[in-house]
Specification:
By secondary structure, the protein is mainly alpha-helical. The protein contains seven helices and three strands, in the order H-H-H-E-E-H-H-H-H-E. Strands 2-1-3 form a three-stranded antiparallel sheet.
Length: 158
């Protein structure tokens, strides 16, 4: 299995939103700077995440993106699949036509691994990961642009 940057960056952006959930909406430019992810790439990812109802956008001064549900209700597997990524490690994408149109000798092994990976990632919520001591250490080292308190007004949901 090779997880593309799409899946990795989607998880990173969602973690950033989870970290900042109590402070209100987070702008894509803040995430871009803090997590070193291209702004245009983040816009594409947020569009997919919004379609899957994992995030909601807020317009106006103080606007940005927020998680649509509490961080303890969103799993890493859910994020990865929301951006059209797969945790399937079979050569045939689960179609059982791996070797000349028929099931290969190792299909069951890779299929079982795919299920294990999915269940592993589905067992980790954003909140659980954010609360890990090693992650907290990194969070404390990251610099986030300061947002003036007067910008947080009454943003409208997108």
């Amino acid at each position: 299995m090779k997880l593309s940057t799409k899946g990795r960056y989607a998880v990173t952006a969602m973690l950033d939103l989870a970290i900042n959930a109590k402070t209100g909406p987070v702008t894509l430019s803040d995430i871009s700077v803090c997590q070193d992810i291209s702004l245009s790439y983040l816009e594409q990812l947020m569009s997919l995440l919004r379609q899957q109802k994992l995030v909601k956008g807020m317009r106006g001064p103080g606007g940005g993106y927020m998680l649509s549900r509490p961080a303890d209700e969103i799993t890493i597997a859910e994020i990865i699949t929301a951006v059209d990524e797969s945790v399937d490690v079979t050569r045939c994408k689960g179609n059982e036509d791996c070797q000349g149109g028929v099931r290969c000798l190792t299909h069951e092994l890779w299929d079982e691994l795919s299920h294990q990976l999915y269940h592993f990632l589905d067992g980790i919520t954003l909140a659980r990961y954010v609360n890990r001591p090693d992650v907290q250490h990194i969070i404390n080292k990251q610099e986030r642009p300061l947002r003036p308190a007067n910008l947080i007004t009454n943003p409208q949901t997108v």
